[in-house]
């Protein structure tokens, strides 16, 4: 049904690059004719909200429960701005990255953020879809300015100068109904594929654990980690490649967009990583965020970088051993903190754990066996990840084409259930914040 969509019968020029030609019966207005800024304060008892790139406006508590981020909001919240349902709110410094949305919640956000309220008859969720498209992100970037890209700001007066699309209100409602329905369909397809990936990853972990257990038999010496690995602190240089540590990927180059937005002061404090070093995210090691790097570059100053004290070794063997399910369970056992999202694994506790020390020949044989037994699994995971990526790209393009009038969904939308927004909201709420499928900046914590 989605593939049968066709364009509108007649178009006219809008003179706006970010959405191009528009259906002849749609209006094009500057945002000052659609929204007005609101600054309601003095609601300290209201729930704190966060404006995220991935999911729009959500409860801050939900975000904090899923990540290791801390609540950085002020104790005195009297100046925080109230957001009412159907208000549009955005992070001035991240609007051009997609940190905005129309709220379905009542709550408060940072006083540094902007709250806009429509003063025309409309379906507010239409703007939620419209303003989270790549086209609007580029337009927001064009109107933002600052000393560096990380300081670019979309001020309210400039947001109000941006031209926007305004279909008839009843058509906006049909567009929202269709996009909610399409999002549910595509979301369920993605969720099913992610479930398969989860099963494949469990199978891969079992293969790795079995191989590590076999080489760690009675004849194999085990040693405390302090005899094998020692923390090192080498300051890097901002021009070196910025690396990330992802739970299921190990150490990988950081996304170029994140590189562009990284704070230069933080980069100057980053640590140098050599190929063969162990890199650990102290707050996520208990989730598996530890790896032997095969890259050289710089990582966050909050990470722990360790070098091997014993040579020769096969680095990939210890990559597998350090990330085996049994070792991750050990990290969980000795890590500590106020709550799971803030559990830290510090070196003294990490150093007391033990690892096998088989011969170099045994290490290599174990690596070969793991690689052989997981090759098909890795291939299947990569294929499904590509399929998910294509589905997400398709969803992004579909939303963009529908909200900008490139595709006419009116007839199809009329045949859909009257209200499927609750199912769409439930699906959005259960979308995982896993780093597998979201770049780090998609979960920026906006409580300033």
Can you offer a commentary on this structure?
With 448 residues, the protein is of the alpha+beta class. The protein folds into two domains: 12-169 and 422-443, Alpha-Beta Complex (Adenine-n6-DNA-methyltransferase TaqI, Chain A, domain 2); 221-357, Adenine-n6-DNA-methyltransferase TaqI, Chain A, domain 2. The chain has 13 helices and 22 strands. The strands form nine sheets. A four-stranded antiparallel β-sheet has the order 4-11-8-9. A hairpin with a 3-residue loop joins β5 and β6 (56-59). α5 runs antiparallel to α11 (360-403), α5 runs parallel beside α13 (421-430) and α8 (315-322) packs across α11. The radius of gyration is 25 Å and the shape is elongated. Mean pLDDT is 88; it is low at 256-264 and 432-448.
β-strand number: 22
What share of residues is helical? Answer: 25-40%
- What's the overall average pLDDT, rounded? 88
Biggest beta sheet attributes: 4 strands, antiparallel
Low-pLDDT sequence parts: 256-264, 432-448
Overall shape: it is: elongated
**What is the C-level CATH assignment of the largest domain?**
Alpha Beta
CATH superfamily of the largest domain: DNA methylase specificity domains
